[in-house]
Amino acid sequence: MTEIVLKPGAVSLTDWRAIYRGAVPTLDPSCKANIEASAKAVERIVAKGEPVYGINTGFGKLASVRIPAEDLETLQKNIVLSHAAGVGEPMPVAVVRLMMALKMASLAQGASGVRPQTIAMLQAMLAADVIPVVPCQGSVGASGDLAPLSHMTATMIGVGECFTPHGRVPAHVALVTHGLAPLTLGAKEGLALLNGTQFSTAYALAGLFEAETLFQSALVAGALSTDAAKGSDAPFDPRIHVLRKHATQIETAKTLRNLMAGSAIRESHRVGDERVQDPYCLRCQPQVMGAALDVLRKAADTLATEANGVTDNPLIFAEDDTALSGGNFHAEPVAFAADMIAMAVCEIGSLSERRIAMLVDPALSGMPAFLTPKPGLNSGFMIPQVTAAALVSENKQKAFPASVDSIPTSANQEDHVSMAAHGARRLLGMVENAAGVIGIELLAAAQGCDFHAPLASSPALEAVRALVRGEVPHLDEDRHFHPDMEKAIAMVRDGRVVTAVAGATLPRVSG
User: Between the N and C ends of the chain, which has fewer C-beta atoms within 10 Å?
Assistant: First the structure.
């Protein structure tokens, strides 16, 4: 298994993506000195006996309650147990692993007062594939992702459940089985572990990584649909896009030109085609998809910064033994980034559905109704287009900005929250919906190109059509459509559509 060495504060999106895909993270040894200095600073702060939030006081609205020294360990244990109050289905294991790695890298920057052995527990659990069972609901994105991170932390002290290579088991059993002893948390450690934006950030990054594959697949499907409809590549002429000056629009148009380069289908109607302009779903792909790419890249920049930040509270400055309370746990940047990704994913799917609708309409496509040789007796692609419309409509509802919502918590002490957790958690479902639309478009576009035989599309697009036809034959007569759709959707989700066009460079969103 691939190992990724994390340099806290300077981890690339490429590395975060690798961890999400299964790589095992370890910490760069150079961070050890900062971790130890921060932990010793907490020891000195405790020894002074002065009230410091979260170290020897209660939490939230109870910050004015002093906690005696003999109860500090109990204080940290209690905050973990009381805050582990999430509900809902467990987070996907891949997202939990990413969340743990994000927390590990944040704590390792030496501003959280956490001991080396506590951070080492996170690393050891990841290495042993002992992954906490974390309910996915219960965070409002400030004061940090308290409930889900508390469930993560609870497993480190032997409470809760973990997914392991041997199944889902009680946390204390999982730890002992893998040679790990449950932690006893020191001063501030419980608060440091459960405070922060790592739940929201992990979900947002997962959504970003999946959206990148979706975006690239959609460009490929859009180019294939353009050929299936005998659409023009003139709208992709670079002179058009240079005049508007948006770099991502220029890049997207170039990609579409390259994908269609060498298409005999395109050459067959370059002269004598009576159509003056194609529908927007074909003609405006550079404008729409370029704008989506721009938004995704801006979200990627925000999340790259957030993933390398320290977001718990209070923060420890070892140089003068200062603990400063602030608000880095407020996940507003993540909420905005998640909303941007949601809008882009929604539009990618929406444009794809319009291309499907165009292909099945004989008045627009010039092909048999619903792409079946015998319309009437056969329904062809009639209902797959309806399914695509349903998925797009669902994504439109999900795309409403989460960041504009807020609800006061903790007896109005935490009176403005980000809802980043909601905004980020919806992304994987939205990408799944949009991937369903792209998968249906691939089938429709391949079917459309079949009608132009013996003319072939470009080498890049023919490679994609061969991929599709390798698992889904041409639709002559109606058959059980669901298995065909599942196969095509899987090609989108697992990136095979992207890798099929190895000769064509597709835009990257991150890293």
Answer: N
